């Protein structure tokens, strides 16, 4: 019997999106070594893809080196035109791309459609930002001299990308690299190679020259080791777990690459007793359950002021009860499967640990026809700071509510994490909002909003949540070197 994902994939307009060849030096490479791609909702095999080798990585690096001078030599307006063409093709094929994303990643189709638009928007935004890499002129401290700071492309870049946003996490890196004038080699997550390969097809059609955007699929260690070793890779951008981020940072030390890391989060979500409860529930639903909870911005610790704790839990659980769990290709679905079984198992372990330590649990009964990758949205209340969920990233639809008494106390608890990616504060008190905007230790803070990402904002974290920024002019500078030039004797 053919499952729902395979049926949808067979009906794609772009059947070449599932051909499974890697894209190196402008050529489609079909290896005899193959890896399977599965639908995480059913475990069904839906495609297979080439397994690239370390030798393929070397070919890709050589091709990128060859392509670099001509690509950096193009006028930024010309690069921008090619990038806008790429974004436009993503939009033209958004339905096929969304089906690919849902089939291999599992997220609901409406969220996959949103991701395609989000992903295309990064390419489009960087197309313009590349035209504005102005540099500076410094008022001179020396007579008869002119001091300039130029921004120049750093060289060949590499990207190691995750499975939770298989399109947007590539375009957020590649849009910036290409706009800066750098070729990029992408190694996507093995769970979601089809989306990455489809992006390569569209880049080729948009006129991105051979060697400028390449996608290699295969074993993460086999492919990343030669990228790390090679002195020609000047920048490395990674999104994924803090554990792997540390390995890649260490591996880049030998060749002193410029490294940017988007790692795990453990976002505190503070709800004070002066807020409109409906707005807070709406915010927390968005911050917890987008991408079925598999989002580094996800609210991991929902701190609720004691006076409204019980009313909040009641309203929150009523909203959660409306979430429909199922296959992402079913239009009614709000929560799909976890992309990896290990992520679902981690959620279950956190629930068991919290309940053993005294948390109250509210969850719907699991539909037994759903496989092991599904986690039913679960609310844990009366969570305490010693529970696993209070300090380990969840990455799934399990919501932990922790009561608090005072502002001072909750700020200390919110900042006690080694992570510092996103944070949220809901309050109607302007002075408090201003105070907390200074005091919460994170790279991105939403005050009375749970929706704040997009191409113009600097996305990134403090502490062990990462290094550098993506999106915004800061994201472009990750792929550029500064050069100070002093003209003397004028
Ligand atoms: P991961 O860090 O293992 O995978 C991310 C990327 O790194 C993938 O491309 C993977 O193939 C690659 N990778 C894995 N091991 C590698 C290695 N030794 N050398 C080089 N590359 C390697 O993430 P995961 O295990 O799939 O997910 C585990 C946790 O990571 C999640 O529960 C979540 O906490 C976090 N995560 C965060 C994000 C994010 O958006 N920041 C995305 C995915 C996962």
TrEMBL record:
Stored InterPro entries: Ald_DH/histidinol_DH, Ald_DH_C, Ald_DH_CS_CYS, Ald_DH_N, Aldehyde_DH_dom, Aldehyde_DH_Superfamily
Gene3D superfamilies: Aldehyde Dehydrogenase, Chain A, domain 1, Aldehyde Dehydrogenase, Chain A, domain 2
Domain Aldehyde dehydrogenase stretches: 28-485
Keyword Oxidoreductase: yes
Coiled-coil segments: none
Keyword vocabulary terms for this entry: Oxidoreductase
Pfam families: Aldedh
Family per record: Belongs to the aldehyde dehydrogenase family.
Name of the protein in question: NAD-dependent succinate-semialdehyde dehydrogenase
Species the sequence originates in: Bradyrhizobium xenonodulans
